[in-house]
Amino acid sequence: MSFMDDELNITYITLSGYVEVNKYRYVYFLITFTIYILIICFNSTIVYLIVIHKNLHEPMYIFIGALLLNCVLYSTTIYPKLLIDFISEKQIISYSACIFQFFIVYFIGSSEFLLLSAMAYDRYVSICKPLQYPTIMTKNTIVVFLVLGWLIPACHIAVPAIVSAKTKLCNFTLKGILCNNSIYRLQCVRSSFITTYGVIALLDLAIFPMLFIIFTYTRILLISYRSCKEVRKKAAETCLPHLLVLISFSFLSAYDISVARVESNFSKTARLIMTLQTVLYHPLFNPLIYGLKMKEISKQLKRLFCPDKII
């Protein structure tokens, strides 16, 4: 379905990735709504605890709070639109809204890698250079890391978003339920600039940060192995949750890039299930990992929900 305009070229496109939405619309709606509420509650609760408790006003917890805020923004960009689509007769989206969703999805995804890099550096300084930690990880340093963690991805992703917004479209049907890299298949001509720029952005926003994280945690592992039991315990307690989040997010990112960039023969059902995994697991996985595995956050959660059991 499309609505043509001589000046704007196209206004609406169809999202064709839904499977038997007319038959299961209310089941889809109920499950998605429940998941969205859980995501908002889980992430917001931990952010709230980080804000109100002074013992959590440390760089590591501030970066965790930033990651969880990203999860809320990411989910709020996707889930309300999914809910509307489930109860609508036609699953359509304006092309401008599609571009905005594309921007937020990849802005948040890229920001995730940069914030995880900042957390890796924080853990490296804390474990490997503990005496220098207070002078290196100052409030100004944290602010700079946070600003760069959001500003660099925003500037990077704005370029393909603006170029795509001005590109002529020939295909009006998107094979998916959200606007990701698949929007390039709507365009009449595959832009060589977008392809080249995409590779550069992938290196800058994902590959290089990931290599830095791997290098940093390898250094931490080697130094911890040579150190006392207390240092090894501290490294395991604080680094393991970050590594679990990194591994989870890396697999989901690799799937998104491969499916969107490579012509695949996945069935519509398989594509829907795999896409839902990318928008479900990570926003739920982050707060659960940090809430259960981070000792101080876990302690505050127990105090919040089970005050009678805390002596």
TrEMBL record:
Q: Gene Ontology cellular component? A: plasma membrane
Q: What keywords does the record list, in alphabetical order?
A: Cell membrane, Disulfide bond, G-protein coupled receptor, Glycoprotein, Membrane, Olfaction, Receptor, Sensory transduction, Transducer, Transmembrane, Transmembrane helix
Q: Which GO terms describe its molecular function?
A: G protein-coupled receptor activity; odorant binding; olfactory receptor activity
Q: How does it sit in the membrane?
A: Multi-pass membrane protein
Gene3D superfamilies assigned to the protein according to its UniProt record, in alphabetical order: Rhodopsin 7-helix transmembrane proteins
Tell me yes or no: is NADP among this UniProt entry's keywords. no
- Tell me where in or outside the cell this protein is found: Cell membrane
Q: Superkingdom of the source?
A: Eukaryota
This chain belongs to the protein called Olfactory receptor
**Species name:** Seriola lalandi dorsalis
The major lineage groups are:
Eukaryota, Metazoa, Chordata, Craniata, Vertebrata
